[in-house]
What we know:
The chain is mainly alpha-helical and 195 residues long. The protein has a single domain (6-155), classed as Rossmann fold (3-Layer(aba) Sandwich). The protein is 45% helix and 7% strand. It contains eight helices and three strands; from the N terminus they run αααβαβαβααα. The chain has a three-stranded parallel beta sheet. β2 (91-95), α5 and β3 (137-141) form a beta-alpha-beta unit. α1 crosses α3 (43-55) and α3 packs across α4.
Amino acid sequence: MIAMNIQDIQKLYGVLPQGNALIKTMEEKSVRTIFLQGLLASATPMFFASIVKRLQKTVLFVLNDNDEAGYFYNDLKTIAMPDDANEQTAEVLFFPSSYRRAVKYGQRDAGNEILRTEVLSRLSVINEEKTTSSLPLCIVTEPSALAELVVAKHKLDEHTLSISVGQTIDLTETEKTLRSYGFQQVDYVYEPGQF
């Protein structure tokens, strides 16, 4: 009996002719929609984790709902981003809705807002070609997350305070800046918007 780990299985998926066919099809500019049949359960993230490094593109996965997107994200991240950095095939990020439940209830989720900001920041770096990562980017999301408006890049740039490790800063000026951005001073920081 042969013991196999996830990376061994991923390598087997990587040499399938279907992977080469999909890559070739995705490179054709005239093709808008591709339908994959026969991929069930964790086979889908396994298949994409095995070919995404050869694509060298940002890939967006839109799943039917938040639960399905969450399962897909966890599978893809486990497969594409193992603990050994040399084995990583992609950077995987989750782009959730910024609301706790449905948008209609209006309950914002601070944790989800952080995840959304992380994805938008990463995309901004890619667009400006300032990325140092050689790994392709995979973003997993669901329709309600895509339907939400996001802040314009110039607005985000205007309201970004960059602080580096070892940098000397004026605390009074920093406090003033954070307050002007709408931050609230608290004793214990536990959510975004506090300092």
